[in-house]
């Protein structure tokens, strides 16, 4: 039986350093683990390009993730091009308030 490796072509090793096994269901679908989707900014309806090599399946986001994503330490990080519709001050203040509530237990 030939081994097949799934490779996310977006420097995934910098975002997630633990190997994971995933399964393919009867319909041929696979589910990317949530930590990987979150770190790469993949959401419902994200488009991926797929191609195979002799031993790998390579998934590449069609568009680079843009917007805010959480890094491996939980920090909000802006990724991608400019997003003029985002009110950065409100967003940062909201995140700060959420963190304070969690730390204060309220």
For this entry, what is the oligomeric state of its chains?
single chain
Q: What composes the largest sheet?
A: 3 strands, mixed
CA distance, first residue to last residue: 54 Å
The Rg value, from CA coordinates, equals: 17 Å
Provide mean pLDDT, rounded.
76
Q: Percent of residues in helical segments? A: 25-40%
Question: Structural class, from secondary structure content?
Answer: alpha+beta
Shape: elongated
Q: Which stretches are low in confidence, meaning pLDDT under 50 for 5 or more residues running?
A: 1-5, 9-16
The main sheet orders its strands as 1-3-2
| Order of secondary-structure elements | EHHEEEEH
Number of strands: 5
Number of helices: 3
**Percent of residues in beta strands?**
15-25%
Layout of helices and strands:
Elements: E1 5-8, H1 12-15, H2 34-40, E2 48-52, E3 56-61, E4 67-70, E5 76-79, H3 88-104
Parallel strand pairs: 1-3
Antiparallel strand pairs: 2-3, 4-5
At a glance:
With 106 residues, this protein is an alpha+beta fold.
How would you describe the overall organization of this protein?
- This protein is α+β, with helices and mostly antiparallel strands.
- Helix content is 26%, strand content 22%.
- The longest helix is centred in the last third of the chain and has 17 residues.
- The protein is elongated and about 50 Å long.
- The termini are far apart.
Which labels suit this protein?
alpha+beta, 3-stranded mixed beta sheet, 22% strand, 106 residues, 26% helix, elongated, 3 helices
């Amino acid at each position: 039986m030939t081994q097949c490796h799934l490779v996310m072509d977006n420097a995934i090793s910098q975002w997630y350093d633990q190997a994971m096994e995933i399964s393919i269901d009867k319909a041929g679908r696979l589910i990317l683990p949530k930590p990987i989707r979150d770190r790469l900014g993949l959401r419902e309806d994200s488009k991926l390009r797929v191609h195979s090599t002799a031993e790998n399946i390579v998934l590449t986001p069609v568009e680079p993730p843009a917007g805010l994503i959480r890094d491996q330490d939980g920090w909000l990080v802006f990724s991608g091009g400019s997003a003029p519709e985002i009110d950065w001050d409100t967003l940062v203040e909201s995140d700060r308030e959420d963190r304070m509530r969690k730390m204060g237990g309220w």
